[in-house]
Amino acid sequence: MRRKDFLTALQIAATYIGTVVGAGFASGQEVLQFFTRYGTFAIIGILSTTLLFFILGLYAMSLGRLHGVHTFSEVSDLVMTKTSSRVISFLLLLLLFGVTIAMMAGSGALLSEQFHWSFGISALLTGVITALTLLLGIRGMMSVNSIIVPILITFVISLFAYVWSTTQGTVIHSAIPLVQTPNTIWALLLSAFTYAGFNVGLSLTVLVPLGQVADRKKILVIGALLGACGLGLLLLLLHLLLVSIYPAGIHYEVPMGYLAKSLPPMMRYGFVFILWAEIFSTLLGNVYGIASELSRHAKHSYFRWVIVILFAAMMVCQVGFARIVSVTYPIFGYLGLFILFVILLSERRIIRL
């Protein structure tokens, strides 16, 4: 493979990872709810999720390349009736805007709590950085994720190594099952499928245009594989870190925050940066997806929509991060899974790249 093609595959992988991870991922809450609570069985779920991330992610990117389209709504127009396409596109945009509000609120809460800035200034700073990045469209998003994601993976590996060294490796051996029922394995597999499905569903407006970035089948396959493996590695390491703080830490709203309290100052600041960067990368993907879809159907330019979306999100996010997440995230998750299923059932072609 040519060096240029491999670098493109790495950028695709980084953008995939950056779009999936978010505040819930970095806080440890998603990993706890979907995997760690199953104890020693969690690794089976993580491996299953990694495989699903590869299959579903590649499928979503392949839709863009197969149909020669740059937005999710173009795919839905091709594989559904006009009415169904409009309904699904509207639901997806509503879903993405809801998550955008949550990410904006999360960035405001994080920076205001850690640095004692006002909530409004904190959210505004994140919004300005997002707008400047999206001036370059999907290429700008890919470039930023190519920086953020390696830092994220390096930090999580370093954090795991630090905890391993301070606990003499008991982080592995203390994996006590938290949930054990006759149907534990089936519940875990359903959890893995749900987690992968709704995360890919949430990422469709980014994954579909990513299919147009690669000019060869092999680039997409490698990009999807590296992205899935990166997500799987992060899930595994975060799971083991959560096991290391069992049982006290798992009862915290932000489990990884409990672990961060025991870290040296530099690592604590690193954790804050990583959490913000994950919020930022998710915000990039959501705002890009909404703006590209709206600019296809409305008169305003793509970047004008970026500004409108960010301004609206900053206004609504004043209600607070915790309230937004607790009320809307379960709904958003299953709506994303539903949208992905509709696309899978509607697309009857065998994808031949």
UniProtKB/TrEMBL annotation:
<feature type="transmembrane region" description="Helical">
    <location>
        <begin position="38"/>
        <end position="60"/>
    </location>
</feature>
<feature type="transmembrane region" description="Helical">
    <location>
        <begin position="90"/>
        <end position="111"/>
    </location>
</feature>
<protein>
    <submittedName>
        <fullName>Uncharacterized protein</fullName>
    </submittedName>
</protein>
<feature type="transmembrane region" description="Helical">
    <location>
        <begin position="219"/>
        <end position="246"/>
    </location>
</feature>
<feature type="transmembrane region" description="Helical">
    <location>
        <begin position="266"/>
        <end position="290"/>
    </location>
</feature>
<keyword id="KW-0472">Membrane</keyword>
<feature type="transmembrane region" description="Helical">
    <location>
        <begin position="327"/>
        <end position="345"/>
    </location>
</feature>
<keyword id="KW-1133">Transmembrane helix</keyword>
<feature type="transmembrane region" description="Helical">
    <location>
        <begin position="144"/>
        <end position="165"/>
    </location>
</feature>
<feature type="transmembrane region" description="Helical">
    <location>
        <begin position="302"/>
        <end position="321"/>
    </location>
</feature>
<feature type="transmembrane region" description="Helical">
    <location>
        <begin position="185"/>
        <end position="207"/>
    </location>
</feature>
<keyword id="KW-0812">Transmembrane</keyword>
<feature type="transmembrane region" description="Helical">
    <location>
        <begin position="117"/>
        <end position="137"/>
    </location>
</feature>
<dbReference type="InterPro" id="IPR038728">
    <property type="entry name" value="YkvI-like"/>
</dbReference>
